Amino acid sequence: MKRIDYLFAALLILFSAGHGFLGTLAADGWNSSASVWSFSGSVAAWLVAAINILRTGRPHDKGVAVIALAGSLSWIGLMAWLAVVAHMISDVRIWLFVGTAAGLVGFSIRTLRGRA
Questions:
Q1: Taking the C-alpha atoms of 6, 18, 70 and 109 in order, what is their torsion angle to the nearest 10 degrees?
Q2: pTM, 2 dp
Q3: Domain segments of the chain: what residues?
Q4: What is the tens place of the pLDDT at every residue in 49-90?
Q5: For FRET with 10, which of 17, 31, 71, 102 sits at 20 to 30 Å CA-CA?
């Protein structure tokens, strides 16, 4: 199960790198304020992934698990908000992010229940 947990965090990193480097910077370049805002989403996702990786290595640390849970739930909320306001409900990229974060939510809850 630990490998699957790491896999979800790695996928979040990978998807965010694709969004940040291939999507945002390749499309808009470095000199756009929209690029800065968009790339900040990638950085936020990397931080959510990082705290989840930390949680995976500290199965008895409930504080880290709570922070990881909050971060993953926040990422799901942000992606749902983006899907609505950007009219991207049917965009598979949104749902890849949501599904990955949902997996991390499940593993965070598992850690909080002492089953990690």
A1: -30
A2: 0.90
A3: 2-112
A4: 999 999 999 999 999 999 999 999 999 999 999 999 999 999
A5: 31
